[in-house]
Specification:
The protein is 32% helix and 25% strand. By secondary structure, the chain is α+β, with helices and mostly antiparallel strands. Helix 3 packs parallel to helix 5. It is globular, with a radius of gyration of 20 Å.
Length: 360
């Protein structure tokens, strides 16, 4: 089997089975019936929300994140549920919320699944051929790969790059910061499978989601990660922001390599380029990266430049391994690096935006 829920009923804190839980299914009918049947047999204490602007008929944005998945976050903050899952319309992406609203970032989620693969029957039997993450995704998976002696592949955004690695037998688990997680059991991201992986891990370890993350950070350190989305920005302004950041690259007109800005030493700056190890294909200009001496990163990408405007995505990733700093609020921990990114990019002045549309 892919998963194993033996003993789950002994560790969930709901009073009884799913009949007494408050669940909101508003996704695709065929999917919800299959999934609810699976959960009804196996677990309790789980709150499930399917957000789908088309199939659900509720006018909700389909992205599973803290802004568009607010109904789930609010439900979890009550403390009535141990685990909450939000999905997009076809449930290939998912968001996990622990008890009392404890948010699990996608970067941490895929790392925890890889670190605990022996809790999942399918993975325990097959083992791990390798792991992969998209370039903007936080580096938590890198720490797990290093400890387990696995090959780690950093690829551009786009699931086809994971698929090529799967076809070549080089990859078992992969994930991206935009809430997509998958494995070689299918050549696509699979939010339902990822949710079931988490249920297996919780059942096997007998710990809460929050405690599992705390243990993981104590063992591997923590990659604090956040993403700022500035949506429907005027295309001309968005291009100006990216052009300014491009000048800081090692090959740009104003390279910052080796310089120290606001106490942060810049190790390198480039526009990410990937050579596919399976076919030699080169994919260029996949995002501007500023990497600091301590391994922290500022990444900026542009998405869409049509008549409706562009979306600027700003990613901040910072690794910390000091025991006293592992349980900070991510936004608080990353505040200095966010401020530096906004300063260097001149984003607020060029776009007229004093705040992002979405923070994850």
């Amino acid at each position: 089997p892919l998963e194993d829920f033996g003993g789950t009923e002994n560790i969930m804190l709901c009073r009884c089975w799913l009949d007494d839980c408050s669940c909101d299914f508003s996704g695709f009918p065929n999917l919800q019936l299959h999934f609810s049947a699976c959960v009804r047999v196996c677990v309790c204490g789980v709150c499930l929300c399917f957000n789908d602007s088309l199939g659900g008929g509720k006018g909700l944005h389909p992205d599973p994140n803290l802004v568009y998945g607010k109904s789930l976050v609010d439900a979890m903050k009550t403390g009535d549920y141990d685990m909450g899952f939000a999905y997009d319309g076809d449930a290939d992406r998912f968001m996990l919320i622990g008890k009392k609203g404890f948010f699990v970032s996608p970067s941490d989620s895929v790392a925890v699944i890889a670190a605990n693969y022996k809790c999942i029957p399918y993975l325990a039997k097959s083992g791990l051929a390798g792991v992969s993450r998209s370039m903007p995704t936080g580096g938590a998976l890198d720490r797990v790969a290093q400890k387990l002696g696995l090959d780690l592949y950093e690829v551009p955004t786009g699931w086809k790059f994971f698929g090529n690695l799967m076809d070549a037998g080089k990859l078992t688990i992969c994930g991206e910061e935009s809430f997509g997680t998958g494995s070689s059991h299918i050549r696509e991201k699979d939010g339902v499978w990822a949710s079931l992986c988490w249920l297996s891990i919780v059942a096997s370890r007998g710990e809460s989601v929050q405690d599992i993350l705390y243990s993981h950070w104590e063992e591997y350190g923590r990659n604090y990660f956040t993403r700022y989305d500035y949506e429907t920005v005027a295309s001309e302004a968005a291009n100006e922001v990216m052009a300014l950041m491009e000048t800081y690259a090692d090959t740009g007109s104003n390279p910052l390599k080796g310089q120290t800005v606001d106490g942060m030493q810049i190790a390198t700056c480039d526009n990410f380029e990937y050579t596919d190890v399976t076919n030699g294909e080169v994919t260029s200009k996949q995002g501007l990266r500023m990497v600091f001496a301590d391994g922290s990163r500022i990444v900026m990408r542009l998405s869409g430049t049509g008549s409706s405007g562009a979306t600027i995505r700003l990613y901040i990733d910072s690794y910390i391994n000091e025991p006293t700093k592992l349980r900070m609020d991510a936004q608080e921990a990353l505040k200095p690096l966010v401020a530096l990114a906004l300063k260097l990019s001149n984003l607020q002045e060029l776009t007229g935006r004093d705040a992002p549309s979405v923070i994850t």
